[in-house]
Protein 1
Amino acid sequence: MRILIGITAGISAYKIPLLIRKFIKEGCEVRCIMTPDSTDFVSPLVISTLSKNPVGIEFWNKETGSWNNHVAYGEWADVFLIAPCTANTLNKLAQGACDNLLMATYLSMRHNTIISPAMDLEMYQHPTVKRNIEQVLADGVRVIPPDHGELASGLSGEGRLPEPETLYHEVMAHLAPQKDYLNIKVMVTAGPTYEAIDPVRFIGNHSSGKMGFAIAENFASRGAWVTLITGPTTLESSHERIHCVKVTSALEMFDAVKTHWDETEIGVFAAAVADYRPTQIAEEKIKKTSEDLSIELIKNPDILSWAGLNKSSKQRTIGFALETNDADQNARGKLARKNADAIVLNVLEENEKCFNSDTNKVRIFDVNGLALELPVASKTKIAQGIIDFITTIRV
Ligand code: PMT
């Protein structure tokens, strides 16, 4: 494997020499490109010695008297890993800037770039950073989410560069992904549903769709054909194996699920479906005429229960549970009531906010009780753990 590593100016660049050693030890060829500022954080001499190759920093190479050819780097590499990827480089990637050798090489890669953003807590939470991550994902870049923990600033939270071992496995999984779901037909529901009150108002919830999208992406990367039925979210998936069906209300989601159910082998129901909808949708915007207003609600169909009732012996249903009290007991109750093969309980204890967060912590229950607990991790990692578990209960 030919691994091209792009190093940018972040404190965590100190981990990259160990990552290079790991790749070399495992028989990979490694070349590195550094942004000029990153040379203040880790020495090019160390990088060059460990990678056994010259390091590209500027377009013009003073030592060889020739230019560092960004196109040749792109052609040589099986994958381009940019780690750590600072907020500044992330912004350039999102914009398509081309003001240094690393950026020119990125633009020369054929859609095979992985980035590992690492920065301080507030920076990683900043809306521009979030926006730039969405943009590069839409451009086909794979993003390794940062770890949670102590940061160079002394703060603690999301933003740490994952350990070299983790980065190594992420790159290897990308280059030789498991294909244990090759051509299996999977359905995933994701996001919230919006239940209209009048032409401008609705009843909804804070689901972002991140958990469902992460599950869909992981299945697709393992070879499955995924029908992703999603309520309103800002997320998009560009994976060729994901067919996205966009819906708004619970009834629309129900119709989409019924349409695709017969061809489905595994259904994962991660959507936060509204349990009730207004009995009537007002034709005109409701006017503020009285001190109080009552809206009559009617129960929505339970989509997971419907799938549980209508599944054959070759189909599996996996639901989620979001509980604020008696969580384990309620999750078990849902498993039985909805005739699911497993229920993934979002554990709120250490992960106060699972809606719209990039992390989650889950406990998985099956007919035998608690089957697995996954500690707080990125939703990408949680999705991988859930699907590894589904492997144990599939037909
Ligand atoms: O989207 P994110 O911001 O990433 O957040 C992820 C999540 C918290 C939304 C997700 O992990 C999750 O837990 N989704 C299910 C939330 C939920 O509605 O839980 P519930 O306990 O109300 O429902 C139990 C199960 O029945 C779920 O699988 C749900 O999809 C399903 N259901 C519920 C009601 C209904 N009318 N139809 C259903 O299919």
Note: Residues 198 and 282 are 5 Å apart (CA to CA).
Protein 2
Amino acid sequence: MAGGLRVVLVGTQHPGNIGSAARAMKTMGLHQLVLVAPERFPDPDAWALAAGAVDVLDAARIVPTLADAVADCQLVLATTARRRSVPMPEFDPRTAAGQLRGEVEAGAAAALVFGRERTGLENEELQLCHGAIRIPANPDYSSLNLAAAVQILAYEWRLSGLAAASGGGPGSEPATALPADDPGAAPDPDDRPASHAELEGFFGHLAALLEQIDFHKGKAPDMVTQRLRRLFLRARPDPRELRILRGILSDTQRQLRSPTGQ
Ligand code: SAH
């Protein structure tokens, strides 16, 4: 899968929802569907509810984990019905769609992630994402049906494209919530936000060093890890910047092995 916006459904329980989500996507011009460990798929219920969008189901990719689904993506936004303990930037659907549109038009791959019907996304899954999108629903009853949530985000995506095509409207405002690429920059393979897999490589390296220097002093590393992830995901480093950071980590590790440093 190259650039464009993909819809990722994580651990979907009811195949009918997968079919309805495919239909919701196609009506709004979205075609890339990735299923992370669906409970029942392929299943006739999915094909029955997809109606004329069976081509989206036929082309759906099935992967074991969310990390696999978004490894090559430069922007990954999760949807969630409620506020979570994981600290992360939060967007409304319209702002998120404008942000995703900007990335995709610059040639990036981006993902919109949806959780399980009963339990949504796990904290570990949310932590893989750059930000969360909450549909501002009734606070007393805020959980939409999965395919209905897909429809709302797909519609906002569609609107952001129509507004951009007609050269006006709120959807065409440059998104400011996350730093945007400079559209006039010379083409350079490193002139893009690092992919998800590149960031995960850095996070793994950083965790190893923190372990080596006993940074956590016997305490659980979870809170520090979450905050560091949030910091670097917000900064959106490019591959060159990640290489510098990893160089610092490697040199530190080398100095630890030969403390005289000479
Ligand atoms: N009890 C679950 C509800 C999951 S609903 C929870 O609290 O998370 C299934 C999926 O639909 C969610 O994981 C999310 O992807 C999407 N969804 C439902 N309501 C939403 C809302 N108000 N805002 C954003 N996404 C929503």
Note: The chain has two domains: 4-165, 196-257.
Protein 3
Amino acid sequence: MNNQRVTQTPLQFPAHFLWGTASSAHQVEGLNRNNQWWAAEAKPGAIWHEGKSGAACNWWADAEADFDRMAGMGLNAHRLSVEWSRIEPEPGRFDGAAMERYRAILAALTARGIRPMVCLHHFSNPLWLEARGGWQRAEVIERFQSFVRYTVTGLRDLCSDWLTINEPQVYVNHAFLEGIFPPHKRDTLAGLRVYRHMLLAHGVAYQTIHSLQPEAQVGNASALRAYRGERDGSRRDAFAAAVHRYLGEDIWLRAIRSGFILPPMGHGDWHPALRDSFDFIGINYYTQTLVRFKPNPLKLFGERKHKEGAELSDSGRDGPYSWYAPEGLYDLCVAMAALGKPIYVTENGLPDADDDQRPRWLLGHLAAVQRAIADGADVRGYYHWTFVDNFEWAEGWGLRFGLIALDPATQVRTPRPSAALYAEIARANAISPAQLAAHTHAE
Ligand code: BGC
């Protein structure tokens, strides 16, 4: 971050910039008993400290109280997801009451001046789908399309910003390569199949949404890591980083532009539904991945690292969740701008229970976004992950990403200092020199 520049004048964001937060259905709604996560949570050892989603943040019963808090902070956008297992509890049977609740949720956001962005798949699957092999079987594409058709038909008058699938990269990696998400597999071939099915389902969903709502804005949220070689000037590290980027990011991004699915997820096969199947780029960014060359093809020629001496966030069961690298977000915004479509930062945040790092991280990442905009990137909104502490998948309640702290047992909420900071920035549509002086130090 250029400290000289940022300490003297406010960092202004464009008019109509979206200041939001992001969440997902299973993590906040509570009592989602009919999906694969609820089942996984019952298995000993599956979730850190045996955490359970339980009532989560109680949003199925009362999201509106948190929407009041968002409006009170001056936020004007929120990204959420709909739960497939509620909307289609059995194959082909759609639940009108669930749809009514989602309609009420979206209407409640809009009534408070908060623009919804709805994601159609965020890690959770109905139990019936999982029992049939879930995303491993090609029939999922048609099933997803039918769910998307019903959902978009029911909600299109209340929402026009859609995400098809959240972070296919993370879903495949965690569920099929590392085995830390259900179905807890370590099966590379299954992972490649799932990734391919997610790509094809994205293309079909993109076309389906547009056929139902021509004015819709449709994209997906990709987990982007701003891969780099660990050692500056090392060609071997740069090569290893390129291999990781190719598999983790490029295959997806190329397919949604050209329609071609490259190896190993495809064989260069072309799918018209996939071609140009995005109206914007959704970037989920938490940290950067540095790659050090290893002569081992099974490790994709590289070992993933964080920068020596970097500031680390809170740790999950496998160590630090992330390291502070806001310049990675700048680089991604600038790189994605070359695709010629608007950009949204659809997730960014960190686990920090005592909030002693979040103010600086928030400012650093927002300043990076502002600098990318000043350098020509068309970034239209930022959705902080997340509004209130929520059920953090395999880490249970062990990592706290909220601007607002939650005690899940009592549902008592306590705003962290970052909530007030984010509210000030959103209201001003700018970061002030005083905020930077108070929370950042020379880097
Ligand atoms: C996911 C969220 C998750 C967040 C923090 C993202 O990968 O989309 O569901 O809570 O990261 O780990």
Note: Confidence is low (pLDDT under 50) at residues 1-6.
Protein 4
Amino acid sequence: MENTQIEAIQLLLKQPKNIVIVPHRNPDGDAMGSTLALYHYLKGLGHKAAVIAPNDYPEFLKWLPGTQSVVQFEFNEEACTTLINRSDVIFTLDFNDLSRVGHQMGTVLETASAIKIMIDHHQQPSDYAKYMYSNVEISSTCEMVYNFIAFLGETDKIDAVIATCLYTGIMTDTGSFRFPSTTNRTLEIAGDLMKRGANHSDIHNQVFDTHSYNRLQLLSCALGNLTVLKDYNTAYISLSQEELDRFEFKKGDTEGFVNYGLSIKGIVMAVIFIENVQDDIIKISFRSKGSFSVNDFARSHFNGGGHTNAAGGRSETSLNEAIEKFISILPAYKQQLAP
Ligand code: 5GP
Ligand code: MN
């Protein structure tokens, strides 16, 4: 982040402000960890802060410190709109285009007069924020929030609560420190967060070892549906609404399923198609190994985006049509998908 921007933000935060902090729709560990960490930090400085999530998030994140104070736009539109319109500053975290919060909330954010600050690590940021800390090389928005607090010269304000939130997002976005986005700096920060009171073992347990039996049955069903397209070094999984209902799907239950495809030797791209009858869309997650960019792939064909090795998208067709379209596109990528 440029010094002039840091100085401007320091000046802005000198007096108590009304601040709204926003993660993306269907927030994950990094989105909730970063927004809650910033919430605790700003409250500690004497600001009035609120985290407004566009919609609900998984149970396995609902132990995070401060989770009970998060308001959801989807269920409290009026109150959230008022909060946003009354705010002086809006932080948008872990996304870089207002479409990522959904149409209605996006419009409210767009028209709000507050000063907007973006902290994000996704590709191709839109130009809606006055101050932008955007870096696609950093593992997670949580790592960036740690840096942001450090830029402001206040690392010593990172207590056990903030450290716990930040460690959670770094852990989830790096696949427990295994993805190539993990750097020595990531591990140094994680080490510092441990020193400040983040309990790595408890956090891992809360996020990964608190699932239901039904979720494991759903995983079994997903793995039963896994198809390998050997010619394209690609594997995909599909889950229909009927299958999700059969195992009483809850938000977050399919988190991580897509990675199983990538665990097969030689697979370069793994995809999961999940039917969502309520929203009338097929939600698609893409993962890749090496230089194959699923960000470009999702952006070009499935109205999505993300990072080089992890991206999301959607299709407004039936589940079968989405899969057929996907398969029909692959020949054009045959060379790029070679290992
Ligand atoms: P996931 O597959 O876990 O939903 O998302 C993988 C990555 O891509 C995450 O960093 C997520 O924020 C991003 N992502 C997911 N869906 C979309 C989308 O529709 N558009 C864009 N631009 N990014 C997405
Ligand atoms: Mn992230």
Note: The two ends are 36 Å apart (CA to CA).
